From TrEMBL:
Pathway: Glycan biosynthesis; trehalose biosynthesis. InterPro entries: HAD-like_sf, HAD-SF_hydro_IIB, HAD_sf, OTSB-like, Trehalose_PPase. It comes from Enterovirga rhinocerotis. This is Trehalose 6-phosphate phosphatase. It comes from the Bacteria. Its cofactor is Mg(2+). One of its GO terms (molecular function) is trehalose-phosphatase activity. GO terms for biological process: trehalose biosynthetic process. It catalyses: alpha,alpha-trehalose 6-phosphate + H2O = alpha,alpha-trehalose + phosphate. Keywords: Hydrolase, Magnesium, Metal-binding. Belongs to the trehalose phosphatase family. CDD domains: HAD_TPP. The keyword Ribosomal protein does not apply. Coiled coil: none annotated.
Length: 251
């Protein structure tokens, strides 16, 4: 690594969205993008010569809806769909789970706190507003995953269980981006808060980069900050040229 204050090291920055760039909200559509965040992301994108990407379980469309239309890259659906260099791509041959989404909504129609999030080729079931429904939600998603077969997998998060195509994964998305400019040859940095981010931490560690866990809990990340607001405060300082990845505390 470079020296502890070397802000001009060739970093490549990868960022989770929920619980990292925005605080977790009771409903997925209720998150709030804090004032100044898009400007700081834009400043970092320019500082890093374009080597900045959001890697999230959300769709690309949803993320750009919250952030406007940023020039930086976005990998959605845990890396399954990618908007790189302004061009959107996703693998061919993925089934639309619309029928399964409708069945889940029907099954939980009498549980108003349980939210079904349609991701097209995937689906997420949230129970943050109805913690008493956790066991039923887990069971319903396990049954659906078993029916869909080996082409899909379960992805658990904070009060949410997702079913996603087996080919998805944040670690794979990061590794793929690192093989091409402007990421090629740079030192990867990835920040996230949830179990869905662990494959990203592992990928970045293997590439000799800096992995940052936000909040408590076991993790493969080598560095830790106490919360998403603490991370964003650090991110703003990096955008201003005050600090950098080498200054982060160890996990």
């Amino acid at each position: 690594m470079k020296g502890p204050r070397d802000l001009d090291a060739p970093w490549a920055l990868f960022l989770d969205f929920d619980g990292t760039l925005v605080d977790i909200a009771e409903r997925p559509d209720a998150v709030v993008v804090e004032a100044g965040l898009p400007a700081s992301l834009s400043a970092l994108w320019q500082r890093l010569d374009g080597a900045l990407a959001i890697v999230t379980g959300r769709t690309v469309e949803v993320v750009t809806g919250f952030l406007g239309d940023p020039g930086f890259d976005v990998c959605g659906m845990h890396g399954l769909e990618r908007r790189v260099g302004g061009r959107l791509s996703r693998p061919d041959g993925l089934a639309d789970l619309g029928t399964d989404v409708a069945a889940l909504r029907s099954a939980f129609a009498d549980r108003p706190g349980v939210l079904v999030e349609d991701k097209g080729v995937g689906v997420a079931l949230h129970w943050r507003l109805a913690p008493e429904a956790e066991a039923d939600a887990l069971a319903a998603m396990a049954a659906l995953a078993a029916r869909l077969g080996e082409g899909y997998r379960i992805q658990d998060g904070k009060a949410v269980r997702e079913i996603v195509p087996a080919a998805s994964g944040k670690g794979g998305a990061i590794r793929a981006l690192m093989e091409h400019p402007p990421y090629l040859g740079r030192i990867p940095v990835f920040a996230g808060d949830d179990r869905t981010d662990e494959s990203g931490f592992e990928a970045v560690n293997a590439l000799g980069g800096i992995s940052i866990k936000l909040g408590d809990g076991p993790t493969a990340a080598a560095h830790r900050l106490p919360s998403a607001p603490a991370f964003r405060a650090w991110l703003h300082r990096w955008a201003e040229g005050v600090t950098g990845p080498s200054d982060l505390p160890a996990s």
